[in-house]
Design goal:
mainly alpha; single chain; two-stranded antiparallel sheet; 3 domains; 57% helix
């Protein structure tokens, strides 16, 4: 069992790593868990934290703290839970605005890096997994007149639009296939609307064809 001194050192190290401000870390290490979580969205882990950062300028600390606090409060006011707001508060202002407004177009404005592509694939996989789980729950309850989706509204709406343009059913996998390819690559969806066609042996599965197409001059031309 850790002593009080060990507990305060662990808390100080974690706060110092987070805020890069020794004065603030010294003050906050005495705060209760709930107060820290309510004010800053922080929960200090029980494992030992080592100090790994050097103190940065006061101006930089203030700018970073102000940005994260502003993001955290904006997300909370928009209805996000404290846990979700905490996980998103370090993102850029533009990304936070997206989560609040649901505007998806920044996803398709530039090619993704390898890391970004992997993150988006993982996010899509989670949406898909959650949708499958929810549908199984509906089946278990005998609810047959609804087909729940755990994808963001903009995904469902855009997929339906692409399906309608191709005279397909709203829930056809074509629209989702177009968005999946565009989403993780950062491509204009128009590119993939021309690249995908039904699989020869499975009409509900779409594969990339071999047609050569001219890419739009601007990635954000799609509206």
């Amino acid at each position: 069992m850790e002593t009080r001194a060990e507990r305060l050192k662990r808390r100080y190290n974690y706060l110092m790593n987070y805020f890069e401000d020794s004065k603030k870390a010294n003050m906050l290490k005495h705060w209760g868990e709930e107060r820290l979580y309510k004010e800053y969205g922080l929960r200090i882990p029980q494992t030992t934290s080592r100090r790994v950062v050097q103190e940065v300028s006061k101006k930089k600390r203030q700018q970073r703290a102000k940005k994260q606090t502003t993001n955290f409060r904006a997300l909370k006011q928009a209805g996000f839970s404290a846990d979700k707001a905490k996980s998103l508060k370090k993102k850029s202002k533009r990304m936070v605005e997206f989560y609040i407004t649901g505007n998806p177009m920044h996803y398709f404005e530039r090619k993704t890096t390898l890391k970004e592509a992997q993150q988006r694939k993982s996010l899509w996989a989670q949406w898909s997994k959650d949708t499958w789980k929810k549908r199984k729950e509906y089946e278990a309850k005998g609810i047959k007149d609804k087909s729940p989706s755990m994808f963001p509204d903009w995904v469902d709406e855009m997929a339906e639009t692409f399906n309608e343009q191709n005279k397909l059913q709203d829930e056809d996998s074509y629209g989702y296939a177009v968005l999946y390819e565009s989403f993780h690559r950062g491509d204009n969806p128009e590119i993939w609307m021309k690249q995908l066609e039904p699989d020869e042996y499975d009409g509900n599965r779409y594969v990339r064809n071999l047609k050569e197409i001219k890419r739009p001059a601007k990635q954000n031309r799609f509206r």
